[in-house]
Amino acid sequence: MRPLTTIELLNVWEAGLQQTLLEKALHLLRVACAAEDISSIASLSVGQRDAHLLQLREWLFGFHLLNKATCPTCAETVEWETSTRDLRLQTPEAVGLQKEFTLERDGFLVRFRLPNSHDLRRAMSQVSYQATPEQLLADCLISVQQQAQEYSFAELPATIVEALNEQMAREDPQADIQMLVNCPGCGQQWEVRFDIVSYLWLEIESWARHILQEVYALARAYGWSEQDILRMSPQRRQLYLDLIGV
Ligand SMILES: [Zn+2]
What we know:
Number of strands: 8
Helix content: 40-55%
Low-confidence stretches: none
Protein name: Phage baseplate protein
Strand content: 15-25%
Largest sheet: 4 strands, antiparallel
Bound molecules: zinc ion
Structural class: alpha+beta
Number of domains: 2
Strand order of the largest sheet: 3-4-5-6
Number of helices: 12
Mean pLDDT: 95
């Protein structure tokens, strides 16, 4: 993976105007990882995908994060700062590496993979997953055996399903980042999920608007083309903006 150039990031932002949030994130990583297709990026476990996005965010906008949430008790807006370094629980691994895991308990041998973006997309678009969320878990099973006999997900005891859930969370910790928030107004304490996908996309949107305003100001003042302006380093663009008092 490598950081995107200004022109690449702007192209990803523009394509994203027609895409869902999940598609935007996958497209962003496809360019950063120079992957041949979106499918290989969507096959990254959710934790791995988010570890890649967090790394990309550090390269694009730095370590500092400003978070916001509304207190569920008194509705006050609470703001707090964190660093991406404090949220990093996994190191980005190579795309195309699909790992298999095993769980052994009570005589059962369960082979499984971790949930990925293909699974999330299916779960978001099909109603059946909303009624039975454990279907997502069933999709990740590769095989279930007890004394050389094959079992289906529906036949698994609840204790095994629970252990499977717990092991999946342990193997892919970046997939679910919870932050403990304290409300200074009323003292309420609660947990907020940090979603790097929506956080980073909001930043890219604001960055794109800002850079297009810069292009407009520079093109108007100097007559340069959009591509020429975008190919400049941010420092050089800023210097020319200073010269025209923007
Ligand atoms: Zn409060």
